[in-house]
Write a structure and sequence with these properties.
about 90 residues; alpha+beta; S16 Ribosomal Protein, Chain: A; four-stranded antiparallel β-sheet; 2 helices; globular
Length: about 90
């Protein structure tokens, strides 16, 4: 997570970064964002799960906090996919 924002108003970008870079250093790719100040907990995390899956498949390891966010967000996306039944197609 790359820290952004200002004093007393943190904002984080979830990024793919080389382990030798500093925390806020040069990134390879942005994968999403995390805003802990948003009151609605469902909208705090925004992730591109396809890219997260790609980076983990090529050997990238998420930090502890990012791993928790990925797990929660993936569960939320799966729950939404199963909860939204497909609408029947109208016939004329």
């Amino acid at each position: 997570m790359k820290q952004m924002g200002r004093k007393h108003r943190p904002y984080y970008r979830i990024v793919a970064i080389d382990a030798r870079q500093p925390r806020d250093g040069r990134v390879i790719e942005e994968l999403g964002s995390y805003d802990p100040m948003v009151k609605n907990t469902e909208e705090r995390v925004k992730l591109n799960l396809e890219r997260v899956d790609y980076w983990t498949s090529v050997g990238a390891q998420p930090s502890e906090h990012v791993a928790v966010l990925i797990k929660k967000y993936r569960k939320k996306v799966q729950k939404q996919a199963t909860a939204a039944p497909t609408a029947p197609t109208p016939t004329a």
